[in-house]
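Input/output pair, single chain:
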Amino acid sequence: MTDHPRKVTRALLSVSDKSGLIEFARALSAHGIDLVSTGGTAKAIAAAGLKVSDVSDLTGFPEMMDGRVKTLHPKVHGGLLAIRDNADHAKAMKDHGISQIDLLVVNLYPFEETVAKNASYEDCIENIDIGGPAMIRAASKNHDDVTVVVEPSDYQSVLDELATNKGATTLTLRRRLAAKAYARTAAYDAAISNWFADQLKITAPDFRAVGGKLVEALRYGENPHQTAAFYRTPELRPGVSSARQVQGKQLSYNNINDTDAAYECIAEFDPKRTAACVIVKHANPCGVAEGSSLVEAYRKALACDSTSAFGGIVALNKTLDADTARVITEIFTEVIVAPDATEEAIAIVAAKKTLRLLLAGGLPDPRAPGFTAKTVAGGMLIQSRDNAVVDDMVLKAVTKRQPTDAELRDLKFAFRVAKHIKSNTIVYAKDLATVGIGAGQMSRIDSARIAARKAQDAAAEMKLAQPMTKGSVVASDAFFPFADGLLVAIEAGATAVIQPGGSVRDDEVIKAADDAGIAMVFTGVRHFKH
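Output:
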């Protein structure tokens, strides 16, 4: 590939985002480049005292139909698509009075932003750009001759090349910008098609596209030999993608994944009702608790598994305060994420230079609809988000003994947590805190055993007379296929259990609970998480 420089003599500018526009237009004009523009962009350039032609002067047609038709014209697309070294193309341009357009600067109608503002259906439709994507695709196809720019961040790259190459751009730059332009229109169309699917309540559209904007390239992926990058999608859901990183090292792929898991879990706990803390390690909560304060919630969560908490992610559902910041920074922590933080808390965390502090600005709504995506070989799995919340479920007591009020409170807490732990999941809880967690095992009985063993280890570390599973409740994310897993929980000291129910052996499991004198409730809702 040669650098195949192409001199820029005419530029067409049509932008909704006018940041940096005037400076860019002024620099283009200084290179002797003729400026052509549309609507508000032309007015802004002219108001800055720069010479600019309206696109209607180029096409010979006025803008019409409320601006829906202005650039869809052969004199625009011919000027973009004509191959400069092709004699037939050159003759067609001459015969039809078409002037070449060497630089196209377009950013699209703000469709994603309009949807995010909960605008009306009609407003969203009007913010679907037609001429912009058409021009972008035309210019990108003809990148051998035409330079295309789709966001202001690339203005300087173009100006640098014009300065270096005497008013010309290189093929290297044009190809890079063309690739970016196609990705932009793809992400734009993905946002539109997904919005339409939502509006029409189509859960399985014939085609599904997913698009995002690069937040940053990451050092590596899950492992150092894997490449990775972080993209933001149009969904405005508070979390790691919306968070302001106050301090600390760059987030890694695993940091982002774990932080998202922690923040989605903490969102289950309404800050108006309680303070809560979630500690996550390798995308699984290793301690979760409610408390009268964040400090109390953190200490209770830490007590569940202080070994795993080392180097973990701490998520809080309220503003991080100084007292909580002091306690959290007593051990090595990778990330603290919260809706906000006091200035004093920020100063305390600042003493730990590598500790990342993320302020998300709010909590995600656990009931909100949405979808999740996962790639498989040659395909992609799309599903609606698990937005089932235990507070909305009808709990059915199926044993002779009903749960006490205290047990029911802890049962709901445990099931709330189980939703966010990899299956198979067993969660022991007592006094609104996890006291043993078994995650991601192939057998549910193994999850029950591991969770009980974790509780034994925690008791030994804290020099307790017995594990905190004594007198606890237990939650299972899915039904018990046999009574054996339940028997392990009973042996560990559980007095009540919450599970979805639905096994062909439910009667056998209920009988085992009755024989032990424990209470059991069914939710009718499963929380598999793979």
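Residues 89 and 95 are 10 Å apart (CA to CA). The chain has a mean pLDDT of 93.
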